[in-house]
Every structure is written in structure tokens, then in C-alpha cells.
Design brief:
The structure holds two protein chains of two kinds. Chain A is an alpha+beta fold. Chain A has a single domain (13-408), classed as Cytochrome P450 (Cytochrome p450, Orthogonal Bundle). Chain A contains 16 helices and eleven strands. In chain A, the strands form three sheets. Chain A has a six-stranded mixed β-sheet with strand order 1-2-3-9-6-4. Chain A has a three-stranded antiparallel β-sheet with strand order 5-11-10. In chain A, helix 8 (155-165) packs across helix 9 and helix 12 packs parallel to helix 16 (361-378). By secondary structure, chain B is of the alpha+beta class. Helices cover 23% and strands 22% of the residues of chain B. Chain B contains two helices and four strands; from the N terminus they run E-H-E-E-H-E. In chain B, the strands form two sheets. In chain B, strands 1-4 form a two-stranded antiparallel sheet. In chain B, strands 2-3 form a two-stranded antiparallel ribbon. Chain B starts with a strand and ends with a strand. Classes of the chains: A alpha+beta, B alpha+beta. At the A-B interface, helix 4, helix 5 and helix 16 of A face helix 1 and helix 2 of B. Chain B: Keywords: 3Fe-4S, Electron transport, Iron, Iron-sulfur, Metal-binding, Transport. Chain B: Residues 1-29 form the 4Fe-4S ferredoxin-type domain. Chain B: Its cofactor is [3Fe-4S] cluster. Chain B: Ferredoxins are iron-sulfur proteins that transfer electrons in a wide variety of metabolic reactions. Chain B: It holds the Pfam family Fer4_13.
Chain lengths: 409, 64
């Protein structure tokens, strides 16, 4: 190591993601240091060696995410890509909603949003309650110990999405297999064949609903598109796939991690059991505290922009740490404490911010509210059936989660 | 207090509706914000300001 590196360790970009210590779900300890001393800092992605800026302050992250001079175009060479993507396909396949910029992004997003409004989501609550109750019935009749991930975290969003999209009963198995593959370590062949099958399924569903509209999301999208005529059938298919892919894994992990956090904080769980009517606030705080999607929110600058006193040049990539933002003491007092009564929890950026903020946010919130309040009410003696350090956490994943969560009662 | 909504900016996130349901709603057709009360009572000030804060695209503002 050279003298320069020894005396000035931050002259070199830090390898990213930063190392975590202690519980695998705790934020990397260096975030707190960076937020104080170097809130806009240089990092080098372990995934591909690309350099980028890392933002760790709440206000900087919000400012950047509402600034139209930052793009979500993953084909841009400065974009801080953090997952394997067949680069030869860039520019050939249509980008997903997540990687579009306005005006295209606006047209596609606004096609979907009326289906996910607060009112529409509230109308799904009774059915969500039934699904959650059925899962918990199965857990109780099986008897502990059980794996909470496979018996609750996976089926709730999977069945919910299947019914929302309007996947017929006879194709439900294929659909569940596909969404399960999204969150597990299947082989490349398994992924390719499931993808091709689901592509075919969506193609058939769209063709069918064009002739026989029903009371489902695909029919609603087709109906809206018939009057506004913005999208092609392939766009509708891509939109539905993007919604499923983006929504499923994050909800599965949100249930698993949220349940684990509650099991680790029994006094907070008692409070929620006594105040189910405040479950929205509790879910805000659980989302803030866990911030399971920490660093997937990235952009590339289209022009030179100053953020947090640093000049970010056109073409440079920027990574937002949503976890660091959600633990910024300037906004959240005593940020490392889980406090389900926290007034400012609503201000968290766990679902992102700006025009790309999670489209399914209201749906996920509602599902989490129903899952946690029902789980605590129906299995009050629920406890972890393994040591914390033995739990199979999803390592090096873009979204924190658990492969299994053994629980008993 | 007067509430101003910018429907052009609105991306139908719904955050204002869950934060201040007496003041904000969403249009069934496009999901965008609908202002239920243009000049809400003072006692709603705190939650309206919170809605302004959590709107992801700065589509809401308050005058006086």
C-alpha cells in the first residue's frame, strides 16, 4: 500500500456495496460516517468496476430523485448497473418502466397507476385478509416449527398478484413457479424456460382479454389504452411483467424481514398487537427501519449538477443509499431505534422518491398491514426457531431478504 | 391556508390521500390528485403540510 493510500484512505473510491458487520440486516456502519464527513462520495462497484457517486443524506437523495437532469436509462455507459444484464440486448429490447425517462415513462406509468390507487387497493383488502388467513390456517394446522417464507411471505403476494392480473386458475401453478423462480436460485435454463412460458401466458391473456374483457388489471389496461391509444400490446405485456418482477421479490422480502424485525422487538410487536388500527404507521416505520431495497435506486447525470456541494458531471452515475437516508438523524431522531409510534416515519424513502417511486407502494403497504396485524393477533406466541446468526440471509442481493425463516409458537 | 395542486406533475402516488384523506382524493379515471377542500381548516394544517412534504414529485403546495 502506498503512503498516499495510508494517509488519505478516501482518495480511492470505496468498494461498493460497503461491508456490513453485525446482523446482516443492519446498515453498513460506514454509512453513518460518510453521511457526516463525505455525504457525496466516490465508490467503485464490486459488480463491474464502474465508478459512481454515492449519496447518503436524506435531503441530497430527495433532491437528486426529483431533478429531471438525472436519467434512469440503463443503456447509458455511466449508469451504475448492479446486476447481470445481457448487454447485447441493450437498445434492442424495450426498457422496463424502471429504466424509462419522460415522456415515455409518464405515458406507461400513468397507464398503470389508476389500477393501484388508494381506493382500488382498499377494495382489495378484504380478499387480502382472506388470503392471509388461509396461509395462517395452514401454518396452525401444520404446527410449529414452520418456514414463514414459504408458508406466508411467498404465497400472499403471489396469490394476490395472480388474482390482480387475472391469471386463470389453470395457469396459476405456472405463474407461481415463475414468481418463485424470481426469488430463488434457479438455473439459467429454468429461468429461460419459465420466462418463455410466462411470456406466452401473458400474450395469450392479452389476446383473450381483448375479445372477452373481465374484471382484472389486464382488461382495465386494455380498456384505458383503447381510449388513449398510447401503448402497443407488447408494451402492455412488458408493463405487467415489470410490475410483477419489481413487486414480487420486494414484497416477499418485506414480509420476511418485517416479521423478523418484529420478533426481535417483542415490546414493539405487543404495541402493534394492541393498536392494529395504526398498522399503516407501523408499516411506515418497519419500511424505514429495514430499508430492504438500499442501493438499487440509481441514476446517470444528463448535465453537470451540483448536489450536496459536489459537482456531478454529465455522464456520471449516482447511487442513492435509501438505508442511509432513512437513518439520517437530521430527519429521524434516534434513527437506529425501531419505534412504531414514530411521527415522522411517513417521510421515509424506502419506496424511493420522485417520478419512479414504487408504483405498487399502496398495494404493498396494505398487504404488509394485513400480514403483520393478522400474524400477531392469530399467533401471539410466535417466536424465532433458530439463532439469528444461523438464518439464511440473501447474500449480495439488491433487495435484502431471507431464504427461510424458521418460526414456532 | 389555501392548497394548490399541480395535476400536470402528479404521478398518482397516493401519499397525500393516506396522509390527509379529508383534503385529498384520487380521480378514478387517471389516479391523479383531486382536491376535496381547497381551504382546509387550521386543524388540518399539520397533515396537509406533511402531504406536501411526502409528495414524491412536489405536486402540492400551500399558500399562507
Amino acid at each position: 500500500m502506498s503512503d498516499l493510500v495510508d494517509t488519505c484512505p478516501h482518495a480511492q473510491p470505496r468498494p461498493f456495496p460497503l461491508e456490513r458487520t453485525g446482523c446482516p440486516l443492519d446498515p453498513a456502519p460506514e454509512y453513518a460516517v460518510l453521511r457526516e464527513t463525505e455525504p457525496v462520495s466516490r465508490v467503485k462497484l464490486k459488480f463491474n468496476g464502474r465508478e459512481a457517486w454515492l449519496l447518503t443524506r436524506y435531503e441530497d437523495v430527495r433532491q437528486m430523485l426529483v431533478d429531471p437532469r438525472f436519467s434512469s436509462n440503463m443503456a447509458d455507459p455511466g449508469y451504475p448497473l448492479q446486476f447481470a444484464f445481457p448487454m447485447e440486448l441493450l437498445g434492442k429490447v424495450k426498457p422496463a418502466l424502471l429504466h424509462m425517462d419522460p415522456p415515455e415513462h409518464t405515458a406507461h406509468r400513468m397507464m398503470l397507476m389508476p389500477e393501484l390507487s388508494v381506493k382500488r387497493v382498499e377494495a382489495m383488502r378484504p380478499r387480502t385478509q382472506e388470503i392471509v388467513d388461509e396461509c395462517i390456517d395452514a401454518m396452525l394446522s401444520h404446527g410449529g416449527p414452520v418456514d414463514l417464507v414459504s408458508m406466508l411471505s411467498m404465497p400472499v403476494p403471489s396469490i394476490g398478484m395472480c388474482e390482480l392480473v387475472g391469471v386463470p386458475q389453470e395457469s396459476a401453478d405456472l405463474f407461481h413457479r415463475w414468481v418463485t423462480l424470481l426469488v430463488t436460485q434457479g438455473s439459467a435454463e429454468e429461468h429461460a424456460s419459465a420466462n418463455a412460458e410466462v411470456e406466452m401466458l401473458l400474450h395469450q391473456l392479452i389476446a383473450d382479454r381483448q375479445k372477452n374483457p373481465g374484471d382484472d388489471l389486464i382488461s382495465s389496461l386494455l380498456k384505458r389504452n383503447a381510449t388513449e391509444n398510447e401503448l402497443e400490446p407488447a408494451d402492455i405485456s412488458a408493463l405487467v411483467r415489470a410490475m410483477i418482477a419489481a413487486g414480487h421479490e420486494s414484497t416477499v422480502n418485506g414480509i420476511s424481514v418485517g416479521a423478523l424485525v418484529l420478533l426481535q422487538h417483542p415490546e414493539q410487536a405487543d404495541w402493534l398487537r394492541a393498536h392494529p388500527e395504526l398498522s399503516g404507521q407501523a408499516v411506515d416505520e418497519l419500511s424505514r427501519y429495514s430499508s430492504i431495497s438500499d442501493h438499487g435506486t440509481v441514476r446517470v447525470a444528463l448535465e453537470d449538477v451540483e448536489i450536496g456541494g459536489r459537482l456531478i458531471r454529465a455522464g456520471e452515475g449516482v447511487i442513492c443509499s435509501l438505508s442511509a437516508s432513512n437513518h439520517d438523524p437530521a430527519v429521524f431522531k434516534d434513527p437506529n431505534t425501531l419505534d412504531l409510534t414514530r411521527r415522522e416515519a411517513r417521510h421515509n424513502v424506502a419506496f424511493g422518491f420522485g417520478r419512479h417511486q414504487c408504483a405498487g407502494q399502496m398495494l404493498v403497504r396494505m398487504q404488509l398491514e394485513v400480514v403483520f396485524t393478522t400474524l400477531l393477533r392469530r399467533i401471539p406466541g410466535l417466536r424465532l426457531d433458530a439463532a439469528l446468526d444461523e438464518l439464511p440471509f440473501k447474500a449480495n442481493a439488491l433487495i435484502d431478504g431471507l431464504h427461510e425463516l424458521p418460526v414456532t409458537w | 391556508m389555501r392548497v394548490i395542486v399541480d395535476r400536470e406533475r402528479c404521478v398518482a402516488a397516493g401519499s397525500c390521500v393516506i396522509t390527509s384523506p379529508a383534503v385529498f382524493d384520487q380521480n378514478d379515471e387517471d389516479g391523479k390528485v383531486v382536491l376535496l377542500i381547497g381551504t382546509p381548516d387550521e386543524k388540518l394544517r399539520e397533515e396537509v403540510l406533511e402531504s406536501v412534504n411526502v409528495c414524491p414529485v412536489a405536486a402540492l403546495s400551500v399558500a399562507d
